[in-house]
Specification:
By secondary structure, the chain is an alpha+beta fold. The protein folds into 4 domains: 125 residues, no CATH class; 103 residues, no CATH class; 128 residues, Nucleotidyltransferase, domain 5 (2-Layer Sandwich); 69 residues, no CATH class. Helices cover 42% and strands 14% of the residues. The chain is built from 19 helices and 14 strands. Helix 15 links the parallel strand 7 and strand 8. It is flat. The relative contact order is 0.12.
C-alpha cells in the first residue's frame, strides 16, 4: 500500500542532533548533507511513485523519499551498494540527509531496496507513454534548482556523448559464441544433439577463441553461425522456447549476420560492410548498437544533454537528458528535446555543434521560437563562381521578392511538397545586367528563372554566419563547456561504462546521475564556489566548504 513519508517534518524531542555541540551542528547544516535534505530530499514528490504500489489496505511501503534519495546519494558519492548500506546504517551525515536525526533510526532489508529498483524498472518498461518517473522527478528538481540559484534558461547548449552498458566489446566470432551458448543453455538437454552439447564444454571456448590461427577465423565463424541456424530451426515449432529471450536474440543474430543458401541448406556469413549499425552487439544487451564517431568505434548508447549557459548564471545545470541507442542521430534527439524544453525551461538560443545541423531542425526550432547557433557544419562547402543565394531578397525562405539589382520577379512560387522555391524574371532586364555572368538564374527563351531548394538556402545561410569569425568564436565559447560536463559525467559519476544493461535501466541510472550532478552544482552555488565572472554579482553568505 502506498503511503507518503512525512515523519521527518516533526523532529523527536531527544535525538543525536540535540546533543551535538552547536558548532558541529552548524557545520552539519551547512554541509552537503544539510543542503541535500533541504533541496533534494524535501523536494522528492513521492506521489509520482505511487503507481509502483497497490492501492489496497495492505502493508505500507518503506518511505519512497528515502529509497530515491539513497539512489541519488549512491551516484553523488560513487558508492557501491555495499558501501551505501553501511553508510545508511552508520554515517550520521547520510542519516541527516535522509531526514533521520538518530543514527540507525530506520532499518530496511536489502531486498526492499532491490525490490524498489525492480518495481521502478518494470513500471517504466510497461508504461512507456507515461514516461519515466525518475525523469519527472528530475524535472521537478530542475525547477527548484533554477529558483534557488535564480538561473537564466534563455541560453542553453546541447551535446551528445557515448556511454556503454555493462557489456564487453566482442568481435563477430566471440559474439557468435556468446549468442549460441545462451541459446543452447535455454533449451532442454534432451532435445540437443552432441554438436550442441559440445559447446557447453568449458574447453570449447578456449579452443575456439584463443587457439586460433588467422586462416581459421572465417571457417570457425561459419561453423558457429550454422550451429545457430540449426538451433533456430530446431526450436521454431516450440512456442515455449520461442518466447525465451535467449532464443529471440539467437534468431535475430542469425538473421542479421547470415544469408541462407537454400540449395545447400547452409548459412553463409555476411560481409562486414553488409551488417548494419543497429545489429546485435552483445548477447546480454540486445538494445546496444554500434557507432563510429570521430574515428573511434563505440558500442552501447548515447546520452544527449542540454545545459544552461547564460553568462550571468553563477553555475550551470543540466535541464534535459535523453538516452538512446548510439546509432540515433543528434538531429533526431534534438528535435525530440526542443518542444519538451520549451515547456519546462523556455529558451531563445541553443548552441550546438555541426552534428545537429538539419534544415528541418532549423525550421522546427524557429517554430518553437528558438534560434540555433552552430559552431561548425557537417558536409562540404559548395565552391562556385556564382553569387550566393542570400544576395536575393527572400522572405521566410519561401518567397523570392527581388534580385540583387532589386528587380522584382514576374512571378514567385514555393512548392511545399518538394521544398523548391522558384522565381521568373524579365529576360529583357536580365540580359544587359552587369551581374549576368555571376547570377545563378537560368536563361530561357521567354524569361530567366531561379530555382533553389529551401534546404540549400538554410544551409547557405548557416555557413555564411559561420564565416563571421566573431559569431563563430562566440558560439564556440558558449558551447565548449558542455564538453567538460560530459567529461564530469564519465569520470566523476562513472557514466563512461554503466553497471547496468538495457536502454531502460541505462536511462534510469543516467537520470539519477544527472540529478546528482545538478545537486553538486547547487552546492557550489550555495557555498559560494561560483564562476569567477559571477562572484561580484552574487551576494551570498559563504558557509563552510565540504567535499562532495
Amino acid at each position: 500500500m502506498f503511503r507518503e513519508n512525512t515523519l521527518h517534518r516533526q523532529e523527536k524531542l531527544f535525538n543525536n542532533l540535540s546533543g551535538m555541540d552547536p558548532r558541529y551542528k552548524k557545520r552539519l547544516e551547512e554541509s552537503w548533507a544539510g543542503l541535500f535534505y533541504k533541496h533534494v530530499f524535501c523536494q522528492i514528490d513521492e506521489r509520482l511513485f505511487s503507481p509502483l504500489y497497490s492501492s489496497d489496505n495492505g502493508r505500507p511501503n518503506f518511505p519512497i523519499n528515502i529509497l530515491v534519495a539513497l539512489e541519488i546519494i549512491k551516484h553523488l558519492k560513487n558508492f557501491t551498494d555495499e558501501v551505501l548500506f553501511d553508510a545508511f546504517a552508520y554515517d550520521f551525515q547520510i542519516s541527516y540527509a535522509l531526514g533521520l536525526r538518530n543514527i540507525g533510526e530506520r532499518y530496511f532489508a536489502r531486498r526492499t531496496f532491490y525490490d524498489f529498483r525492480a518495481r521502478l524498472y518494470q513500471y517504466t518498461l510497461e508504461h512507456p507513454k507515461e514516461g519515466s518517473v525518475i525523469f519527472q522527478q528530475f524535472e521537478t528538481l530542475v525547477q527548484h534548482f533554477i529558483e534557488v540559484a535564480q538561473l537564466d534558461t534563455e541560453e542553453q547548449r546541447m551535446d551528445s556523448t557515448q556511454i556503454m552498458s555493462n557489456i564487453k566489446r566482442a568481435g563477430r566470432l566471440a559474439l557468435a559464441y556468446d549468442v549460441l551458448l545462451q541459446g543452447i543453455k535455454a533449451c532442454p538437454l534432451e532435445i540437443l544433439g552432441s554438436e550442441f552439447k559440445e559447446v557447453l564444454d568449458p574447453h570449447y571456448k578456449t579452443n575456439l577463441l584463443y587457439k586460433l590461427k588467422d586462416t581459421e577465423a572465417s571457417s570457425r565463424l561459419e561453423k558457429l553461425l550454422n550451429l545457430g541456424g540449426e538451433l533456430s530451426q530446431l526450436v521454431k515449432d516450440n512456442l515455449e522456447l520461442q518466447g525465451r529471450l535467449e532464443i529471440q536474440v539467437l534468431v535475430r543474430f542469425i538473421k542479421e549476420q547470415t544469408v541462407h543458401d537454400d540449395e545447400r541448406n547452409v548459412w553463409l556469413a555476411k560481409e562486414n560492410k553488409d551488417i548494419t549499425a543497429s545489429s546485435l552487439q552483445s548477447a546480454f544487451d540486445a538494445e546496444a548498437t554500434y557507432r563510429k564517431k570521430a574515428g573511434k568505434s563505440h558500442v552501447g548508447f548515447v546520452v544527449n544533454l542540454t545545459e544552461t549557459c547564460a553568462d550571468n548564471n553563477p553555475v550551470q545545470i543540466v535541464t534535459d537528458y535523453q538516452v538512446e541507442p548510439n546509432s540515433t542521430s543528434d538531429v533526431k534527439m534534438a528535435g525530440e528535446s526542443l518542444e519538451k524544453l520549451q515547456g519546462t525551461t523556455p529558451m531563445n538560443d541553443l548552441y550546438v555543434d555541426g552534428g545537429y545541423y538539419s534544415s528541418d531542425l532549423v525550421k522546427k526550432a524557429e517554430g518553437q521560437g528558438v534560434q540555433l547557433h552552430y559552431t561548425d557544419m557537417t558536409g562540404r562547402n559548395v565552391t562556385s563562381n556564382k553569387l550566393p543565394y542570400n544576395v536575393f531578397n527572400i522572405e521566410h525562405f519561401e518567397r523570392i521578392l527581388s534580385c540583387p539589382k532589386l528587380q522584382e520577379p514576374l512571378r514567385s512560387n514555393f512548392d511545399s511538397k518538394s521544398g523548391i522555391l522558384s522565381a521568373h524574371f524579365d529576360l529583357n532586364v536580365c540580359t544587359p545586367c552587369p551581374l549576368k555572368d555571376q547570377c545563378p538564374v537560368k536563361f530561357q527563351k521567354r524569361d530567366t528563372v531561379l530555382r533553389v531548394s529551401q534546404k540549400s538556402l538554410m544551409a547557405e545561410n548557416t555557413r555564411l554566419i559561420l564565416m563571421d569569425k566573431k559569431d563563430r568564436s562566440e558560439n564556440g565559447s558558449k558551447r565548449a563547456a558542455i564538453e567538460g560536463t560530459n567529461s564530469a559525467f564519465k569520470r566523476a559519476h562513472g557514466a563512461g561504462k554503466l553497471k547496468v544493461r538495457g536502454l531502460v535501466r541505462c536511462s534510469l541510472v543516467m537520470g539519477l546521475k544527472t540529478i546528482a550532478h545538478n545537486f553538486h552544482q547547487i552546492v557550489r552555488f550555495l557555498q559560494g564556489d561560483t564562476r569567477q565572472k559571477c562572484r561580484k554579482n552574487v551576494d551570498l553568505h559563504q558557509g563552510t566548504l565540504a567535499t562532495i
